Amino acid sequence: MTSLTVNNQPVQYRLDPATPLLFALRDASNLTGTKFGCGTGECGACTVDIDGQAVRSCRITLAAVEGTFVTTIEGLSRDRGHPVQQAFLASNLSQCGFCIPGMVMTAAALIRANRDPSDDDIRAAMTNLCRCGVYPRLLEAVRRAARIARGDENIVPPASPDIDAGDAARAVPALAPPATPAPPQS
């Protein structure tokens, strides 16, 4: 059994320790925001934060993450209030959206490590692939996220047009703590 913390919740996976973290997150925890893209670590769609570092979850096993803190896109911010989420939404970065969770996680790790990244820093960190070609807007979105994180810019993220803002922040069932059984009645 592999024990780690996922989105601030202790988790024990009863899976083969050689299982890629990606499949444990998606299949056992129903955290499907982390995407399966290439399976070789090249595309970045599966990027998660492991102890503060952006890591391609398709290339790391459960055994390798024993005892770590893992944050997925679902755990970054339930109300889309993280500076990277705000900037990506305000910059209208997403097109098909498949690569965006991995890009958000990569950008979040970058900004946590470097609060004022240069364009070269951003290009070096953001090696995620996007078949829609959002790259021209990506640099500005990451720069904007850094400004928001530093407090140099404030924006209010819009709710998705097809979802009520209150519903958007609803708890993810897979992340809800286990119910505490009621004490026996005498």
TrEMBL record:
InterPro entries: 2Fe-2S-bd, 2Fe-2S-bd_dom_sf, 2Fe-2S_ferredoxin-like_sf, 2Fe-2S_ferredoxin-type, 2Fe2S_fd_BS, Beta-grasp_dom_sf, Diverse_Oxidoreductases
Pfam family, one: Fer2
Lineage: superkingdom: Bacteria
Annotated TM spans: none
Region feature (Disordered): 157-186
PROSITE patterns with a match to the protein in the record: 2FE2S_FER_1 (PS00197), 2FE2S_FER_2 (PS51085)
Domain 2Fe-2S ferredoxin-type: residue ranges: 1-76
Stretches with biased composition (Pro residues): 175-186
Keyword Lipid biosynthesis: no
Keywords: 2Fe-2S, Iron, Iron-sulfur, Metal-binding, Oxidoreductase
Name of the protein: (2Fe-2S)-binding protein
